[in-house]
Amino acid sequence: MAWSNVAYDFAGAQVLVTGGTSGIGAATAAAFADAGAQVTITGTRAAASDYEADLSRYQYRQLDLESRGSLEDLAAATTACDVLVNNAGLSFYSLGQDEHDPDVFERALTIHLAAPFRLATRLADKLAASKLPGGGCVVGLGSITSFMGIAVTLGYGAGKTGLLGMTRGLAVDLGPRGIRLNVVCAGMVETAMTAGVFSPGGEAWQRPALERTPLGRLGKVDDISGAVLFLASDAAAWITGQTLMIDGGYTING
Fold this sequence. Notes:
This protein is α/β, with parallel strands linked by helices and 254 residues long. Helix content is 37%, strand content 14%. The chain has a single domain (14-252), classed as Rossmann fold (3-Layer(aba) Sandwich). Strands 3-2-1-4-5-6-7 form a seven-stranded parallel beta sheet, sandwiched between helices. Helix 1 crosses helix 8 (221-232) and helix 3 (102-122) packs parallel to helix 5.
């Protein structure tokens, strides 16, 4: 972990991080594991050995967010869950696909809204049984695209915006069962998905983003993973249905 003056204790906690093979998901999985949790991650490939990264410290499960059967299988195979991190997602724009296309748009909604909803509701009984201080919790990975119009990520932004409303609604529904749900909304963070922005040639995107960001830098994965652990901890035991913006001040600087 990159933090020098914060420590968490999740010893014995069962944590599920979707999309935990790279980027924010990988940083979050590592942070929970460093804090003593037993971490399960998901990815799209058949086995953990199919990735270049060393994933041996985690239990690995293949997951297709667009397959109801795959989601149901994951929920059924998860025997206990204290923390669910709905992190997995993608920008179809980064893959060269047009998110204005109705079929692509619908796929984005499935991945970023319907799939997290299905996992959260299917795991509700297990989250309710959590003995974790602060109770079982779900943390969703949101985006600044929920608060500003970005045409090229139309479907992604719509899905992430829906995630906020879904989180608030489920926080009301599941609060009486001791389950908390919150979202961290990430700004421009260096990951594989944003590689085009951070690589040489991405200056046209970087420069205006930096000029608008009061803290004067773009994000790192540990900027986001730290907030996820906070929201899962008992320091956040009275926080539910909320959205935490982590963007260096980008969205407040009109």
